[in-house]
Design goal:
By secondary structure, the chain is α/β, with parallel strands linked by helices. It is built from 21 helices and 23 strands. It folds into 4 domains: about 90 residues, no CATH class; about 220 residues, no CATH class; about 40 residues; about 280 residues, Ribonuclease Z/Hydroxyacylglutathione hydrolase-like (Metallo-beta-lactamase, Chain A, 4-Layer Sandwich), CATH 3.60.15.10.
Length: about 675
């Protein structure tokens, strides 16, 4: 069931209802960065054509009801009833929503994770237990065990049991509003059940392969979907490696050996895919799954028994509801049990394709019967080497040139500077106002990981506004940081306080102002604004757009002037100060607003390229057409994230090379004359 943006109130609509809503259609919405996850392709793969948002659920109205005989509508009504029961039994403190316990039950029983709070989601992802909340193979397997146990208890024949299970899975898939992961898991199970009904002997590997082939024929783009890959690789790994591993381990009570094998073999199979898709290695799940999986099975069993009982005997539903709440609290404690050991879950740069191939090659060779002496030792050593490289990621490719990338962060700003060699600087981290979407975690960090970056040598905050500051919090948590640069001091609260807490211990903090200079090899960095604040003025200034740090980064004849959000007043101040502003590349102030990038300032800078960071379809009208006209009149080429996606400019001191994540590549020669390359050089991957 959908949730309105900015509200968590459930909308009581049924499948098949017609609705009318006042919404804002998304014009695309994907963050277009080099080698980034294609959200648009993902939406097409799940048959979503456009996205839209509304300010309040009051703008969504039902205009027609589902047909009276609709099976989907009837099952949807059951789903709404379950949600209403959970809200009634597990209300939020204010009584207008659902509690955290209720949201967990809603996710486990119905696959609706939209009301899980951010802290719960973050912890589940960190511990590797989030797969228990995404209804897929794990849920279907637990349901299979629960139902087969029930059927055996009532002495139902095997054939009737399989037919009943197949019918229930179809019902359940409709009940949880079948996502691709649910459909995959259900179809795999149905394929196996059909095989057992039609033939005496069924090879699991054949039925799994048949289900994958069918799904790919229906939607070939599924092959590139991370969920599809994880589902089938985990299943294949369990099928191939669990039997030989069981033979080598002692049998423990309560099926502990079998559970350990399932957990280990699935984790081994998906480890490189999780590292490549989510930049995480989670070892804690290997330990937590021993308790978490049986506990989730118990919660689901009690939960599905509780719902019809509560409907039939509402007055007596209090005690079982308390039991459910107790079990959820136990699960919460289990999920936090390994918090004192952060090394069991950590982030890694995106592994290269060769590392993933080598990992799977040696993992597969483990199944090959030995043909010569020392084969097992050689294969084990090879697998250990690739696993070590996957986890440690020791190779960070250096940059032969000075490279500045304006990251596409929507309506915000973030720039990555890669100095010749392996040292890096991140200037601002983007952020979306009035949104829980974490740009630092979901956009900026993946950009750095895809480049193999594990350490940000210089983390720079131009000014503490959310669209520049917000994303730096996640970056400070995910990466080692050498130094933190900032301008005038601000009040330590809100996001700024979060950033300071997130900075690793031992980070060097620098207050920067005009006159501050730093040399990074052949590259010089100068702070042109604001003026250094005296000790007497500390904490007295209002920190706003015009207090942004202005940096000039130069290598040979090439310079980049990065102006934060400063406006015309600061530009006049810089002109009057007689500073050397000449730069080949200018980052337009305040996202290209009319109050910045004046004609006089452009005449002094004489840029050949102007960078504008603005969100696609933003409500501010950035960049302003007048600013674009002034840039064209000054002879500068404009590159903007709302049209071009991320923009990368490489400089060797004599010429520039410009790449766009969405469009043609371009370069300027020593005289900065612009030439466009052929379409074959459009670059969308690193």
């Amino acid at each position: 069931m959908p949730f309105a943006r900015g509200a968590r109130r459930r909308l009581d609509f049924l499948a098949g209802d017609e609705i009318r809503a006042s919404v804002r259609l998304s014009s695309g919405g994907a963050f277009r960065n080099f080698g980034s996850f294609s959200y648009e392709r993902y939406l097409r793969g799940v048959n979503i054509h456009r996205r839209a948002s509304t300010k309040t659920s009051l703008l969504v109205k039902r205009t027609g009801t589902a047909p009276a005989g609709s099976v989907r509508a009837r099952i949807s009504r059951i789903r709404c009833g379950i949600q209403a029961e959970l809200e009634r039994r597990f209300p939020a403190p204010d009584g207008n929503d659902i509690s955290t316990t209720g949201a967990v039950l809603e996710a486990l029983l119905l696959g609706e994770d939209g009301r899980l709070d951010e802290a719960t989601v973050e912890n589940l992802q960190k511990t590797g237990l989030y797969h228990l909340f995404a209804i897929s193979g794990g849920h279907i397997a637990i349901l299979n065990v629960l139902l087969f146990s029930l059927f055996r208890l009532v002495r139902m024949s095997p054939r009737t049991s399989r037919l009943a299970l197949a019918a229930f899975l179809v019902f359940y898939t409709i009940l949880v509003e079948g996502s691709p992961s649910v459909l995959r898991a259900t179809f795999m199970t149905l394929a196996y059940l059909a095989g057992r009904l039609l033939w005496k002997d069924v090879h699991v590997l054949n039925t799994i392969s048949a289900s994958a082939l069918f799904l790919l024929l229906v939607n070939p783009s599924s092959l590139f979907d991370a969920g599809f890959q994880l589902t089938y690789v985990a299943t294949l790994s369990i099928i191939l490696f669990t039997p030989p591993l069981l033979k080598k381990l002692p049998r423990l009570p309560l099926k502990a050996t079998e559970l350990a094998c399932l957990s280990v073999t699935a984790a081994l199979g998906v480890a490189p895919l999780i590292a490549r898709s989510f930049n995480r290695v989670t070892l804690s799940s290997l330990l937590l799954n021993f308790v978490a999986i049986p506990l989730v099975g118990l919660i689901m069993g009690v939960g599905y028994a509780f719902l019809p009982f509560a409907t039939a005997f509402p007055a007596a539903a209090g005690p079982p509801a308390a039991v459910l709440g107790f079990l959820v609290n136990v699960f919460a404690r289990v999920s936090h049990a390994l918090d004192p050991f952060p090394f069991l879950s950590f982030r890694v740069p995106t592994p290269r394709a060769g590392i993933v191939f080598g990992y799977f090659l040696f993992l597969g060779l483990c199944l090959v019967r030995p043909r010569f002496r020392g084969q097992r030792v050689l294969v084990g050593a090879g697998f250990s080497l690739f696993f070590f490289v996957l986890v440690v990621s020791p190779f960070r490719p250096g940059s032969p040139e000075l490279r500045v990338t304006m990251i596409d962060v929507g309506q915000g700003e973030s720039l990555l500077v890669e100095f010749p060699g392996r040292r890096t600087m991140l200037i601002d981290g983007g952020g979306l106002a009035a949104s829980s979407f974490d740009v630092g975690e979901r956009v900026v960090s993946p950009v750095l990981w895809r480049k193999g970056i594990k350490k940000v040598d210089y983390l720079v905050l131009t000014h503490p506004h959310p669209d520049h500051l917000d994303g730096l919090v996640a970056v400070a948590k995910n990466f080692r940081v050498g130094e933190f640069w900032e301008g005038w001091p601000t009040r330590v609260d809100g996001l700024y306080a979060d950033l300071l807490r997130a900075l690793p211990s031992g980070v060097i903090r620098r207050r920067c102002g005009r006159g501050f200079r730093h040399q990074e090899g052949e590259v010089s960095i100068a702070i042109l604004h604001p003026e250094m604040m005296t000790a007497a003025g500390q904490g007295q200034a209002a920190v706003g757009n015009d207090s942004s740090l202005v940096l000039k980064i130069a290598l040979g004849r090439t310079a980049f002037l990065l102006t934060g959000d400063v406006g015309a007043a600061t530009e006049r101040e810089l002109l009057e100060a007689g500073l050397d502003l000449g730069s080949a590349v200018l980052k337009a102030g305040h996202h290209g607003s009319a109050s910045s990038t004046s004609a006089a300032f452009l005449a002094a800078v004489q840029p050949k390229a102007v960078l504008v960071s603005a969100g696609e379809g933003n409500t501010y009208g950035f960049p302003n057409p007048e600013v674009l006209g002034r840039c064209r009149n000054a002879g500068a080429e404009v590159f903007r994230t709302d049209i071009d996606g991320a923009v990368e400019i490489s400089a060797d001191g004599r010429r520039l090379l410009v790449r766009k994540a969405a469009g043609f590549a371009a370069k300027r020669d020593a005289d900065f004359r612009l030439t466009r390359t052929t379409k074959s050089m459009i670059i969308g991957l690193d």
